[in-house]
């Protein structure tokens, strides 16, 4: 008896001396920090307070919860790390909505360009069936949701993103990242509303998601490698794009990208690689496989003359495009020219492989292709027959 008492005493004394690390998950609900969630009241400060607590607590895992059946109006907000817990989960079951009036933004110098910004976290999960509504139609100039300079990031669980004022999800400088089971939804006419923008990330998986926007469904740009995209439906939108790369002479590198089991519905482009004249670097080791098109304007397009204004000139240097495979491609093209492979004279595209492809126009006529400075092979049966490639 006395011994067990002593034992308990030692234990409780020890627990006072040891840092207060608990192994139990700890949940912080924004409602407990004064958030109202009526869609009218400014809940920014409540979220900031809840995040401060969440980030400060030292536990194996900690959760910030946004409860369901409520709409929280929040101005631009930083969720910055490092945090004291190993992993931080943000559960979004309710809706987050941005203020309609940009003058409500009162944004500070470095945060003006973003609405919700996670930064410097190791082990972040954002999930839940809630909706992140950028109210974009009123002010298309800001990135809605950005995660930067973090490791081990997971986004998913049915999360819905809607009407971002600019790009919906920006993933910037992340090592090990997954985006799974998200829905992104913006009008076809909305400018620059990329769905998921991946820059400087490595070891990336994006899957089981539905993306419809006014710009690229997914854009993969400089410094990204080992990116796997699968089971994604894109449309409306400008397709799954690698690039643009090499703008203003930039030395951009993207490699080891694999896009498979993608469906394009009424999209403006499908599989696209776009680079600017005068750039450097490379886009290489890229595979598009098992792709289905329905009424897509440009199903396959490599464009080394990308230019989004009137005054681009042909230059000597270019981003090298090498080892790109399109395999098991079927569907319909809105344009007669279903395949465009336009490369520069000084840096032809090399090791381009097209294998088993069947594309007709939307009204079921023969489609055609356009090739310029492309070296590679056509394998299996390709419709249209790509006579610009070596037939194997
Ligand atoms: C996506 O998330 C929703 C909501 O949480 C869930 O019901 C559904 O099963 C998930 N789907 C997949 C493919 O994981
Ligand atoms: C070509 O790219 C594929 C990925 O699509 C990669 O697995 C393969 O190793 C690359 N080939 C060479 C010669 O680098």
What does this entry look like structurally?
The chain has one domain: Single-stranded right-handed beta-helix, Pectin lyase-like (Pectate Lyase C-like, 3 Solenoid). Residues 5-21 have low confidence and may be disordered. It has 2 helices and 29 strands. It is 7% helix and 54% strand. It has 392 residues and is mostly beta strands. The protein has a 29-stranded parallel beta sheet that branches. One 2-acetamido-2-deoxy-beta-D-glucopyranose binds next to loops. Residues 1-23 form the signal peptide. Keywords: Cell wall, Cell wall biogenesis/degradation, Glycosidase, Hydrolase, Secreted, Signal. GO terms for molecular function: polygalacturonase activity. Pfam families: Glyco_hydro_28 (PF00295).
Number of domains: 1
At the first level of CATH, what is the class?
Answer: Mainly Beta
Q: What global shape is seen?
A: elongated
Strand content: over 45%
Instruction: Calculate Rg over CA atoms.
Output: 24 Å
CATH superfamily: Single-stranded right-handed beta-helix, Pectin lyase-like
Small molecules bound in the structure, each named once:
2-acetamido-2-deoxy-beta-D-glucopyranose
Largest sheet: 29 strands, parallel
Instruction: Look up the CATH topology.
Output: Pectate Lyase C-like
Structural class: mainly beta
Distance between the termini: 85 Å
Total beta strand runs: 29
Proportion of residues in helical segments: under 10%
What is the count of DSSP helices, taking H or I runs of 4+ residues?
2
- Segments where pLDDT lies below 50 for 5+ residues? 5-21
Mean pLDDT: 89
The CATH architecture comes to: 3 Solenoid
Subcellular location: Secreted, Cell wall
Organism: Sesamum alatum
Keywords: Cell wall, Cell wall biogenesis/degradation, Glycosidase, Hydrolase, Secreted, Signal
GO molecular function, one term: polygalacturonase activity
């Amino acid at each position: 008896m006395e011994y067990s008492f002593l034992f308990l005493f030692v234990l409780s004394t020890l627990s006072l001396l040891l840092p207060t690390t608990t192994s139990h998950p700890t949940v912080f609900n924004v409602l407990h920090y004064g958030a109202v969630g009526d869609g009218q009241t400014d809940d920014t400060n409540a979220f900031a307070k809840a995040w401060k607590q969440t980030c400060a607590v030292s536990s194996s895992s900690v959760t910030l919860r946004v409860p369901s059946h409520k709409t929280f109006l929040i101005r631009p907000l930083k969720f910055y790390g490092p945090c004291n817990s190993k992993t931080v989960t943000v559960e979004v079951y309710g809706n987050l909505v941005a203020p309609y009036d940009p003058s409500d933004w009162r944004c500070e110098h470095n945060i003006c360009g973003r609405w919700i910004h996670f930064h410097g976290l190791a082990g972040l999960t954002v999930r839940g069936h809630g909706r992140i509504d950028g109210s974009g139609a009123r002010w298309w100039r800001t990135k809605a949701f950005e995660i930067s300079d973090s490791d081990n990031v997971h986004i998913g669980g049915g999360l819905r993103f809607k009407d971002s004022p600019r790009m919906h999800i920006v993933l910037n400088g992340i090592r090990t990242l997954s985006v799974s089971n998200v829905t992104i939804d913006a009008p076809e006419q909305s400018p620059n509303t990329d769905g998921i923008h991946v820059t400087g990330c490595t070891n990336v998986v994006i899957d089981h998601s539905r993306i419809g926007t006014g710009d690229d469904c997914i854009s993969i740009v400089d410094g990204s490698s080992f990116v796997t995209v699968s089971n994604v439906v894109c449309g409306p939108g400008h397709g799954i794009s690698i690039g643009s790369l090499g703008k203003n002479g930039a030395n951009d590198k993207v490699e080891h990208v694999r896009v498979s089991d993608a469906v394009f519905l009424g999209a403006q482009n499908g599989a696209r690689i776009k680079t600017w004249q005068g750039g450097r670097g490379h886009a290489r080791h890229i595979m598009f496989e098992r792709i289905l098109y329905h009424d897509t304007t440009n199903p396959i397009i490599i464009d080394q003359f990308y230019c989004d204004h009137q005054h681009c000139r042909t230059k000597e240097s270019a981003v090298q495009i090498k080892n790109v495979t399109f395999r098991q491609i079927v569907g319909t093209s809105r344009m007669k020219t279903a395949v465009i492979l336009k490369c520069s004279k000084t840096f032809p595209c090399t090791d381009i492989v097209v294998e088993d492809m069947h594309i007709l126009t939307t009204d079921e006529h023969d489609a055609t292709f356009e090739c310029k400075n492309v070296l590679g092979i056509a394998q299996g049966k390709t419709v249209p027959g790509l006579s610009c490639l070596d037939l194997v």
